[in-house]
Amino acid sequence: HESLEHLRAALHAGEFVLFFQPKVNMRTGEVLGAEALLRWQHPQQGLLPPAHFLPIIEEHPLAVELGNWVIDAALQQIREWQQQGLSLPVSVNIGARQLRQRDFARQLQELLGHYPDIAPRLLELEVLETSALGDLAQISQLLEDCRGLGVGLSLDDFGTGYSSLTYLKRLPATIVKVDQSFIRDILEDPEDLAILDGILGLASAFGRQVIAEGVETREHGDMLLRIGCDLAQGYGIARPMPAAELPAWVARWR
Ligand code: G
Ligand code: G
Ligand code: NA
């Protein structure tokens, strides 16, 4: 199996790549942005998803190094698309290990500083609500500091933690990403639909936008539109794809 040393070598050999999954407004047809999803282009095993390697380094300082690589690679990609005339917000997943660094906001500022031509609002952080399990006051301050740099913030896998409502209230998120477990059964399960309806109401009271994750079919999309959830991401819209494919996808979608 893969070891920490393999992963470190892979990072330095440039074997990691970002895939991108679009987020859209199903009502207006607008493409809102894309989520960067990490992949390891393994020389023997091919393209590996995060489940194959993130657990190995989750608690290790290498997770911080890889996380900073992800942010930098996302900024590079934003710049490349910008130079092609495509101004597309990109979100990156921030792991718990990264958020435990007290100077995370300073590191983010330094990374952004390398890209003075990029508006910080084009970068968005996706943070699991469970990342706040440690010290809510501290993480909330850290995320406020990040928001102060101008970047967006979404609460990922919303609804799966033990204190979702506390996080909704205390964390300075702009967007709530409803976990796919609540979306999967909305066509058959009135209770999931009720939960989603509740989240929409709450989020709107807090001035947050809501995006549904894991939208796999047309029927799911139609149901979401019917209850007023316009923003969506999922295989039914587009699978994660290489960066080079995204501009053509955006052009076709519009
Ligand atoms: O990419 P995939 O669709 O297989 O994602 C699986 C999980 O890995 C998701 O929960 C996703 O948030 C997470 N993930 C994907 N890319 C990154 C990344 O760059 N950093 C972190 N910390 N998690 C990621
Ligand atoms: O936790 P996070 O939201 O980052 O999860 C992203 C993960 O969900 C990635 O593994 C991505 O490939 C996967 N994903 C994206 N859209 C869908 C979908 O419509 N259905 C399923 N089952 N997984 C999806
Ligand atoms: Na995410």
Automatic annotation (TrEMBL):
In alphabetical order, the GO MF annotations are: catalytic activity
Answer whether the UniProt record assigns the keyword Methyltransferase to this protein.
Answer: no
Listed under GO biological process in this entry are: signal transduction
Residues annotated as coiled-coil are none
Question: Which UniProt keyword terms apply here?
Answer: Membrane, Transmembrane, Transmembrane helix
Domain (EAL): residue spans on this chain = 1-254
The cellular location(s) given in this protein's UniProt record come to:
Membrane
What's an example GO cellular component term for this entry?
Answer: membrane
What is the protein's name according to its record? Diguanylate cyclase
Full-sequence range covered: 798 to 1051 of 1171
